[in-house]
Design goal:
With 477 residues, this protein is mainly alpha-helical. The chain has 2 domains: 108 residues, no CATH class; 308 residues, no CATH class. 69% of the residues lie in helices and 0% in strands. Helix 6 packs across helix 8, helix 9 packs antiparallel against helix 11 and helix 16 packs antiparallel against helix 18. The protein is globular.
Length: 477
């Protein structure tokens, strides 16, 4: 039987069609059958049309909106995605978002792996953060307060005008807290300059407010002073703000752009939604809650001056240091087990347990501050009064700015007792090394996502540059 010859044009058309398809589509059917083909390619018909290639290109460029290709990445990218889901305890686990009935094996394997590898380093970092906050950051903060406080007393600044001026500046900065981040982009020279001036100004105003407030209450006798402190403490319990009594070593505030100018209010109102109520909320938080904290501190400090070695300043300072750091050590040691116990409570019992823990920690904080303060007065300010004040006022604040935690000097904002869910309401914001390492991991993750996105864009551009036949010619052999 004579064989029919195939036309040369038909053969050339078939070869051109095969060459026009990207190399990744040559083995597409195998990947779809194995379940590894991305969803955006499973839904496309072969050969790929120009419209579908443009759609895939747009999906690859918008990594945050449509990361369909990330769901079927190799094992390293999948492990990274499960890790990101596990690192954020507030986020819903990925396997629950997908509506699966049981926990995937990858999730359980990652949890076991992280439990074996990350438990000991995480605890060591928590201990290192506590030691750094107690032995480095807290003494630097107290030294800054001693220097500015003593300078103002040396120059005999009037109490009432300074008190009103400090409140006015503090309230003004609270009202413009949303405006400053928009005008000062992150990692810019303007932000670096303005942030340092902001920290310096608000630090001086906070110390002036406290010194002037204590000076206005100085004429009161012991009974009136203790009564005022007790009333202020009861008022703080009523407005659920006893956590605001704490300072370093239990609090460490980092100099981050998103949180640098933030001054939290008591009722958490929004400027864009509430307007006048937001202004009243700022005024209440600065003028009322802030001064309640000031006079509560004064009462406890006065009691320690009266009953803790009142005739010997050195032994009084040593006793305060021993007592204060002892309470701080116990508070940090019991934080994790108490958080688990408080997490099982609900309602008023949970709030009461959190308040008791905050008050015990507050007692340790006052003793640490008083001990460091008296030691500086004995060994530095008595020998070199003028020079010692200027050194204490400038050098520690400069070191804190270099460490990236200059905001720890400030006393601002309102903390609400029991605001965090479960037992996290008694977890102190004392993360320095852990926050630094977490930021590094986040930057690496974002860099890796950008590299994957660029690879997808390049592959999509390569697929777009090759011509294809929408309807390839039929061949009859």
């Amino acid at each position: 039987m004579a064989s029919k010859s195939v036309p040369r044009k038909v053969i050339l058309g078939c070869v051109w069609t095969a060459m026009s398809v990207p190399a990744s589509d040559m083995w597409k059917e195998t990947r779809v059958a194995a379940g590894t083909e991305p969803l955006c390619r499973q839904q496309q018909a072969w050969p790929t049309s120009a419209a579908s290639r443009e759609k895939r290109k747009a999906s690859a460029q918008d990594v945050l909106a449509a990361p369909l290709w990330q769901e079927h990445q190799p094992a390293a990218a999948a492990d990274e995605k499960w890790s990101a889901s596990c690192e954020d305890p507030a986020a819903q686990p990925l396997w629950q978002e997908q509506g699966q009935g049981q926990v995937p094996a990858e999730y359980l394997q990652l949890q076991r792996r992280r439990g074996r590898r990350g438990r000991l380093p995480g605890r060591l970092l928590a201990v290192a953060d506590a030691l750094l906050a107690s032995l480095v950051i807290a003494p630097l903060v107290v030294t800054t307060w001693v220097g500015v406080w003593t300078l103002e007393e040396t120059h005999q600044l009037p109490a009432v005008p300074c008190f009103l001026a400090a409140l006015a500046v503090h309230l003004t900065l609270a009202l413009i807290q949303d405006y400053l981040p928009r005008r000062l982009p992150a990692r810019s020279d303007d932000f670096r300059t303005a942030s340092r001036g902001y920290t310096l100004l608000l630090a001086v105003m906070c110390i002036t407010q406290w010194r002037s407030g204590w000076a206005t209450a100085k004429p009161l006798d012991l009974r009136a002073t203790l009564l005022l402190s007790a009333v202020c403490l009861v008022a703080l319990l009523c407005v659920r703000s006893t956590k605001g009594l704490l300072t370093p070593p239990f609090f460490v505030f980092l100099d981050r752009h998103g949180e640098f100018f933030a001054i939290s209010t008591r009722f958490r109102t929004s400027r864009s939604q509430h307007g006048v109520l937001w202004v009243l909320d700022c005024a209440f938080s600065v003028l009322v809650v802030g001064n309640l904290i000031v006079f509560t501190w004064r009462g406890v400090w006065t009691l320690l001056d009266l009953y803790l070695y009142p005739d010997d300043q050195l032994w009084s300072a040593i006793a305060s240091l021993v007592l204060g750091y002892g309470v701080v050590l116990v508070a940090f040691a019991l934080q994790l087990p108490l958080s688990l116990a408080v997490g099982r409570l609900q309602g008023a019992s949970r709030l009461l347990a959190a308040d008791l823990y905050h008050l015990v920690s507050f007692f340790g904080t006052v003793n640490v501050w008083r001990g460091v303060w008296n030691v500086l007065e004995i060994f530095l300010l008595e020998e070199y009064p003028e020079l010692g004040c200027w050194v204490c006022a400038t050098l520690p604040l400069f070191l804190l700015m270099l460490l990236g935690c200059g905001n720890s000097v400030l006393v601002r904002g309102v903390f609400i007792d029991g605001e965090e869910p479960g037992g996290r309401c008694i977890i102190f914001p004392c993360k320095y090394l852990r926050a630094y390492l977490q930021d590094r991991k986040q930057k690496k993750r974002e860099k890796r996502r950008q590299q994957l996105a660029e690879q997808m864009v390049n592959s999509a551009n390569h697929a777009t540059s090759l011509p294809t036949f929408v309807n390839p010619p039929e061949t009859t052999l």
